Amino acid sequence: MAVLLSGLLGACGKHVDVPEARLAEGGKFPPLTLGSTSGNVISTTSYEGKLLVLNVWATWCPPCRREMPSLERLSRALDPKRFAVIGLSTDEDEILATEFLLQNHITFANFFDKSGKLAKQLGMKVYPETFLVAPDGTLLQRLPGLHEWDGQAMIAHLEDAYRRHRHEKMNDMKGHRQDK
Questions:
Q1: What is the per-residue pLDDT across 84-122, written as a single tens digit (0 to 9) for each?
Q2: Residue 64 carries which DSSP code?
Q3: 73, 135, 85: which is closest to 110 by C-alpha?
Q4: Which helix (H) or strand (E) holds 109?
Q5: pTM score, whole prediction
Q6: Which one, 92, 93, 160, 179, has least CB within 10 Å?
């Protein structure tokens, strides 16, 4: 509860138009087509099999800028075979966002949503907001606001979420085989 409260207090208050149906935890995470400044396009479905940490941010948001270094450290601390940390900037100016990433030595994959279409699809209410997506594409958790991503408690939380999800899927597969 303290993590959630601190996250809400560390969020930018920019109003975002929210669609009627907000993306719910436990439901399927929508496949998003992500574009980079280099012209590369990738879908979030390409991260299936890994626990995805998708951070939606913008340079105009002070908490977003403050949490980026800890996301960078998190991306380096996690096993890339099991986890992916990616960013989605909603800046209208991709050059400004790219300069911020370069100046702050942010190396994890970042993509751009300058039209705000993807942020709207995700039902963004505050910035930053991070989405934890299970290896099967299920939305595990929405984490609004500023977080310290590379702390031992957060890394343990992510590792536990990955293990718990893998364990549930293995049990589902065993139960399915026994039913036959």
A1: 999 999 999 999 999 999 999 999 999 999 999 999 999
A2: H
A3: 85
A4: none
A5: 0.84
A6: 179
